[in-house]
Amino acid sequence: xxxxxxxxxxxxxxxxxxxxxxxxxxxxxxxxxxxxxxxxxxxxxxxxxxxxxxxxxxxxxxxxxxxxxxxxxxxxxxxxxxxxxxxxxxxxxxxxxxxxxxxxxxxxxxxxxxxxxxxxxxxxxxxxxxxxxxxxxxxxxxxxxxxxxxx
Length: 151
Prior knowledge:
Layout: H1 2-16, H2 43-59, H3 64-87, H4 102-116, H5 120-143
């Protein structure tokens, strides 16, 4: 489900280009003069990501509400990492190992532990595997022309 939440907006951008890609922050600046989130956090990506996790969750017989919440939390974590990167004056394409993966994985997986009743071990392993997969597959997807940046 983490892959659906975070991969579907990338596929949406690949298929739709910039059509419908209005930034969530509306181009607004924070008090430090930097963008709140940046151009890569779009309403289209949020909608596609939540829809994708809802569909995957329904296919896994976990329910639509769980899938929608999971996707929303994952993408909220992704926006949180973008917000922190902007406060650190890092451009949106700058690599920040850990910060690029942890918030978008920990939030939904922790709620999943509560909702579905799996333990902290499953939570930790899931987050770790997501981080590793993200670091391995993102450069590959970049080389294949699917991602705009290698991380």
